[in-house]
Write a structure and sequence with these properties.
By secondary structure, the chain is of the alpha+beta class. The chain is built from 16 helices and nine strands. It binds flavin mononucleotide.
Amino acid sequence: MNRRKFLKKSMAATTLALGSGMLSPACRKNLRSDLLSAQISGTHAIEKLSSDGYKILYYASCAPSGHNSQPWFVKINSPLDWVVGSDSTRWLTIVDPGNREVLLSLGAFVENLVQAAAAFGYDVETSILARSIHDPDVVGIQLKKINFRVNRLDRIMSRRTVKSHMLDKDLKGSDVDNFSNLSGGHLHYFPRDSEHSQLMAKEAVDNFVIQFENKQAIAEMADWTRLTDEKAVKFRDGLTPDGMEITGIAGWYVRNFLDKTDLLGDTYKNKGIEKIRQQVNQGGGWIAITSEGTGVKDLVESGRRFQRMALAAREKMIAIHPMTQTLEEQNGQKNIRENHHPTTIPQFMLRVGYLDRYPEPVSLRRPVEWFVRV
Ligand SMILES: Cc1cc2nc3c(=O)[nH]c(=O)nc-3n(C[C@H](O)[C@H](O)[C@H](O)COP(=O)(O)O)c2cc1C
């Protein structure tokens, strides 16, 4: 091993072992707030799109997506007639060959869009256009101006995926009831010490390990990882060290010294598994969001249910961490279904927990201009 390699390896072991939080996040600028505030204050020149329309799409794009792949495009037929589509160049063909997560993410985008439109005084009628899970045009959007506004843009802007510092405290009944109402009863909560919660934690770890042994799945994840700030700013999507909550010295090391091949190696794998093992036992238990079917409508609706709940959770200082590997692996799907209710289909497995402090969002988004098609 040459000297540079040796130094890199020993620094990797030390810094990754030190873990997150060694440097205050204040030492580093938040790329997301820099880029997004510049965007929303600017003017735009997209034909057929009004200034309100542009802003609505900007807020819609704050939606979560698997690997932060942002698998959406929006066709502007006329100022009030749009189509939300599925961008095949952004599909996760290895871990999500059935486009389940793509359609869930589009559902979350549509929910943000509908709630953002309400803030600008528009009612939205949605219709499912796609007949199959691979169709490009997925949801029709018709906007209608009304004399009524409900402004909940704050929570759209400040929601994020949170994986660390969850309190080991069960969710309150009133919060669970609220989430359940928002999801039309398609939500099941398992308190932290319940048998089912422990099963979900075990499945999350087991299937994470299975996925880490799958070289194609890891290569796909590596393709969506933006290690350096330069790459993050260039693509404005994917998984950044900040988004993966590799912060402080470890984050600095990963941003400056790791390259794509390191993501495929054993050090990264073992650290990842260790981190997941710690995470699954933290927090207030698990939530499953289910659907009755597996068609386009079921998946888009599940994504909307998830996002309604995630936005309400933001207001209640509740962290939501989707852990999807279980549902991406056949065995994991089967075990969760058999131990839950065989006739319902789990679409999200979410680790949840109260926070003392809700962190700022950090994951990047593509500008509206990049995903609009006129
Ligand atoms: C369908 C779906 C699946 C996801 N699966 C995972 C997952 O398995 N593990 C994880 O850490 N985050 C998962 N996430 C969260 C995304 O990584 C996250 O939404 C994305 O990086 C954008 O970050 P933000 O939610 O903070 O805006 C998932 C999100 C969605 C919508």
